[in-house]
Design a protein that fits this description.
155 residues; alpha/beta; Nitrilase/N-carbamoyl-D-aminoacid amidohydrolase; 4-stranded mixed β-sheet; globular
């Protein structure tokens, strides 16, 4: 996938098109790249400009656009949560945010580390998420709450 920088609406349209294709192929899980919704950066000012709250219209619109697809979707973005910035993977299902994983080992300037290691489900299979640098820490894949997962999704 080609990156779409600083245009969340275009990225959301690309996600919806990709999920439509995945659904037509019979997929139950579609995974999009790290920080896909506005683009990745290591620069704090760029990250702050690209970060969105989960309640932003583009995020709500993306979730709503996926309502009709029987596919669980993982898509990356920079999240603004209060005064902090996080590199997160949204898990979207049936038009809703089913969960959020925040990168535990961020290497982006000014990005806060996530503390939770949630396990998600798609198509009867449990999975956990690692984002980029997280995969360099073998303890993350087997952390608390990871028991019973069938695979890890690294983006």
């Amino acid at each position: 996938m080609r990156p779409i920088l600083d245009d969340a609406r275009a990225a959301c349209a690309a996600v919806t098109a990709g999920v439509s294709w995945a659904a037509n192929q019979g997929a139950g899980l579609a995974v999009f790249p790290e920080a896909y919704l506005d683009g990745h950066s290591y620069d704090r000012e760029t990250i702050a400009r690209r970060a969105r709250a989960l309640t932003d219209p583009e995020i709500r619109g993306l979730a709503a656009s996926l309502r009709g697809f029987p596919v669980t979707v993982v898509v990356g973005m920079f999240e603004r949560r209060g005064n902090s910035l996080r590199n997160v993977a949204l898990v979207l299902r049936a038009g809703e945010i089913a969960g959020v994983y925040a990168k535990a080992r961020p290497n982006e300037n000014g990005v806060a580390a996530g503390q939770d290691m949630p396990v998600f489900e798609a198509g009867g299979r449990r999975f956990a998420i690692n984002i980029c640098n997280d995969a360099n820490d073998p303890d993350l894949a087997g952390g608390p709450g990871q028991a019973g997962r069938r695979c890890s999704v690294s983006r």
